[in-house]
Amino acid sequence: MRTPFYSIQLNKPEQTAEIHIYGVIGEGNPNDDTFAKSFVRDFQEIEGSANTINIRINSPGGSVWDGLPMFNAIRASKKEVHTYVDGIAYSMGAMIALAGHTVHMASGSLLMLHNVSGLAFGNAKSLRKSAETMDKYDELFAELIATRANKTIDFVKANWLNYEDNYFKPEQAKEAGLIDIIESYQAKNIPPNIKALNHYQVAAFYQKQPDEPSATFLEKVIQSVKNTVTNQPMNKFKKLMTIGIRAEDDEPIEVEKAESEIEALKQENEALKAEIEALKKENEALKARSDDLKAQLNEVSTPPSAPVAPADVIYNSSSRPSYETSFDRERRAILGR
């Protein structure tokens, strides 16, 4: 079984706790249906035993549904909470880092802010509603980032939530007011060619586990869509699932009509398969007929072969034959040649 995307270790004598968020936020928790519920429960349990909580982050981001409750639990804690960017803190991972009461970045680490993004399915009305939902999340994140960095919301929108991926080295993040302390230790466990990777490729890197091969992020999104179409009612298919956001659109759709269309597509697919199979058989029959005709043509064009007697060989008078028959020798004796 794959481990959760976070782990917690409590040091009772020192009354400190270490939380490692190494991976995609919201992935792989085997205990609860809701990853945020599990994290908040564990975090609150640690709060009862530790005075200082250190949260170490190396994450490409993940689900906003899971990330926001985590953010609020960390920020609202009465204990001293330090967040450390050990490698990268992208997207929702960056927001978790900014939730700390004191924010640290390792030398060589990276922090990245961008707008939420999502995968949606439906008609024009439902897609517009999904876009409106993402706009609301952007408003929320702009407020949270502005409060942390002591900037205006308009500044954050224009510079950091501007529909681009905005990267910060430790020095840049500190100058922007996003973090407090730059640590001397080096960033670790990041792809060596991270600057050449896009956001989804980075996410795929962090989804890989040493004990179990993992599909790429895009493959998982595609599989999720396939599973939703095949196994769930169509109103559930309108769930927005991405590296940045998962949101539901409660707009009702015509389930029966959708199921009928899916069934029609299945039947059409079966008919196409049968047609392809028939064409394959027809092709095989044509090939066999072609081979038969070629064989008949060869038989017609090749004259029947018969043994050639030595005396029937016609020699060129200007050249000596390569061999002689007894008839030749007798003829030459008579002619005196």
Task: Please give a quick description of this structure.
The protein has 337 residues and is an alpha/beta fold. It is 45% helix and 16% strand. The protein has 10 helices and 10 strands.
List keywords for this structure.
337 residues; alpha/beta; 2-enoyl-CoA Hydratase, Chain A, domain 1; eight-stranded mixed sheet; two-stranded antiparallel ribbon; 45% helix; elongated
Task: Itemize the secondary structure elements and their pairings.
Layout: E1 6-11, E2 16-22, H1 35-47, E3 52-59, H2 64-75, E4 80-90, H3 92-98, E5 102-107, E6 110-113, H4 124-149, H5 153-159, E7 166-168, H6 170-176, E8 181-186, H7 199-207, H8 217-231, E9 240-241, E10 246-247, H9 255-301, H10 326-335
Parallel strand pairs: 2-3, 3-4, 4-5, 4-6, 5-8
Antiparallel strand pairs: 1-2, 6-7, 9-10
Helix pairs in contact: 1-2, 2-3, 4-5
Mind explaining what this structure looks like?
The strands form two sheets. Strands 1, 2, 3, 4, 5, 6, 7 and 8 form an eight-stranded mixed beta sheet that branches. A two-stranded antiparallel ribbon has the order 9-10. Helices cover 45% and strands 16% of the residues. The chain is of the alpha/beta class and 337 residues long. The chain contains ten helices and ten strands. The protein has one domain: Alpha-Beta Complex (2-enoyl-CoA Hydratase, Chain A, domain 1), CATH 3.90.226. α1 (35-47) links the parallel β2 and β3 (52-59). It is elongated. Residues 209-218, 231-254 and 304-325 have low confidence and may be disordered. α4 (124-149) crosses α5 (153-159).
